[in-house]
Design goal:
Number of helices: 4
Pfam families: Glutaredoxin
CATH architecture: 3-Layer(aba) Sandwich
Low-confidence stretches: none
Helix content: 40-55%
Protein name: Glutaredoxin
Number of domains: 1
GO molecular function: glutathione disulfide oxidoreductase activity
CATH class: Alpha Beta
Structural class: alpha+beta
Order of helices and strands: EHEHEEHH
CATH topology: Glutaredoxin
InterPro entries: Glutaredoxin (IPR002109), Glutaredoxin_subgr (IPR014025), GRX_bact (IPR011900), Thioredoxin-like_sf (IPR036249)
CATH superfamily: Glutaredoxin
Shape: globular
Function: Has a glutathione-disulfide oxidoreductase activity in the presence of NADPH and glutathione reductase. Reduces low molecular weight disulfides and proteins.
């Protein structure tokens, strides 16, 4: 399974939804909580080109946010990205 990284904030409902989907898939991920860390937030913005959370990478591919992750699932493409 490829490395999964998800930038989050602890109060974010979209972050919780994205993590629930990954958990349901049995995917292990590294969560980076950017709350209170301008450095981590700047890192996320630099890498993703976006300011909203969550921002998700599967392997080297930037998936995007929660809606993007769920769209991959609806399209039947998420399992392939996860290596299933």
């Amino acid at each position: 399974m490829p490395k999964i990284v998800i930038y989050t904030r602890d109060w974010c409902s979209y972050c919780a939804r994205a993590k629930r989907l990954l958990d349901a898939k049995g995917a292990l991920y590294q969560e980076i909580d950017i709350e209170g860390s301008p450095e981590l937030e700047a890192e996320m913005r630099r890498k993703a080109g976006r300011t909203s959370v969550p921002q998700i990478w599967i392997g080297d591919a930037h998936v995007g946010g929660c809606d993007d992750l769920h769209a991959l699932e609806r399209a039947g493409r998420l399992d392939a990205l996860l290596g299933d």
